[in-house]
Fold this sequence. Notes:
Layout: E1 3-9, H1 15-28, E2 33-37, H2 44-47, E3 57-60, E4 63-67, H3 70-77, H4 79-91, H5 98-103, H6 108-123, E5 128-132, H7 136-156, H8 160-166, H9 171-174, H10 187-203, E6 208-214, H11 218-233, E7 238-246, H12 254-273, E8 279-283, H13 291-302, E9 318-323, E10 326-332, E11 341-345, E12 349-354, E13 357-362, E14 370-378, E15 381-388
Parallel strand pairs: 1-5, 1-6, 2-4, 2-5, 6-7, 7-8
Antiparallel strand pairs: 3-4, 9-10, 10-15, 11-12, 12-13, 14-15
This protein binds adenosine-5'-diphosphate (ADP) and magnesium ion (MG).
Adenosine-5'-diphosphate (ADP) binds at residues 11-17, 244-245, 282, 284-285, 288-290.
Amino acid sequence: MGRILIFTGKGGVGKTSMASAHAMLSAEQGKKTLIVSTDMAHNLCDIFETTIEKTITNITTNLDALEIDSNYMMDNEFSDMKRAFGNMIQSSGLPLGTLEQLSLFPGMDELFSLLKIMEVYESGEYERIIVDCAPTGETLTLLKFPELLSWYMEKFFPVGKVALRVLSPLSKVMFKIQLPDKAAMTDIEKLFFKLIKLQELLKDKSITSVRLVAMPEKMVVEETKRNYMYMNLYDFNVDGVYINRILPKDIDNEFFNEWIEIQNNYTQELNEIFVEVPLYSIPWFDSEISGIKGIRTIASEVLSEWEVFEVKDIHKGLSYEPVEEGYLLKLFLPSIDKEGLDMHESTSDIIIKVGNFKRNIPKPNALRNHSISAAKFVDQHLLITLSGQ
Ligand SMILES: Nc1ncnc2c1ncn2[C@@H]1O[C@H](COP(=O)(O)OP(=O)(O)O)[C@@H](O)[C@H]1O
Ligand SMILES: [Mg+2]
């Protein structure tokens, strides 16, 4: 089974460097590897010192690269999906042109980056796909979009039959979905089905890992904490954090001594937050690490020490447990306090809001007649009791 590693983190922390070094190491281990950039400000071409086309480009033995232009993808490779989306909006009665339709859903065009990644994954051509993402906020918008769109589609558009099959009792959460008969589906249903498959792929812990890149300094640590919490809110498996640009301990210089002290404190804080997540320390290199040579150095001198491609099952995810009163929904949400959390429910959903992000968690069909009877926050877990009427 292939692997997908998604690198994200604050701007400038070293995402592209880390993703590229992983890709290089992977290729050197003899695994067919693709590095994909979904950041509109692509710079794989700078790192690999070559021109990377809008289609897959070979870099070196076992290593290919792709800088995704989502508009190009939408127009050239997924025009049927684009049309389906247009039809869907049309069936809603809104008199809009295609571009307006797309801009109704921020994140829509980037969706095509994810669809491309899924298509490449399913082709089976690559053993490892390394994804170099845009900074935190944009990546979160990207990763939560398939779920959000399928949620809207299920609510407001005619995807009825497929939705019922796919989202049958507890199935989305607990069991693998059943394959509906593809030929019998409309375009819109096919798009919906693809979105469900995409979520399954991105949330399958044995395939997809999210890796956070950080640096030991205040703003970055704060953003990394939030990022981790949101990734958990949306059910992604964060199974590695890279602390990049660690100063060597043996410089004896007053200026650097102070920085080393600061770095030690934040490294310790990161260790306390990510108790269960593997942390990898990456030294601050004394020369620019761009270029294939630099990337090879990180791969061979640093990353090769660890089993960085192994699946690490860290994320506990969202779970439902039967309890005396009904069901207990359990969700791990690290580094927040109760005050930052807002929650309510409708007949079909539980809505959890933290800061600027919210998630609609559809109640499994079997629990639609259940409602929230208690909620508490214990040991970084949100525990919601759902009881029948
Ligand atoms: N460990 C490191 N030591 C020295 N320079 C680094 C290190 N990590 C990243 N850099 C440099 O920092 C800059 C930003 O890194 P980059 O990987 O492009 O970050 P991001 O993709 O997160 O914006 C680049 O010039 C890169 O060469
Ligand atoms: Mg980058």
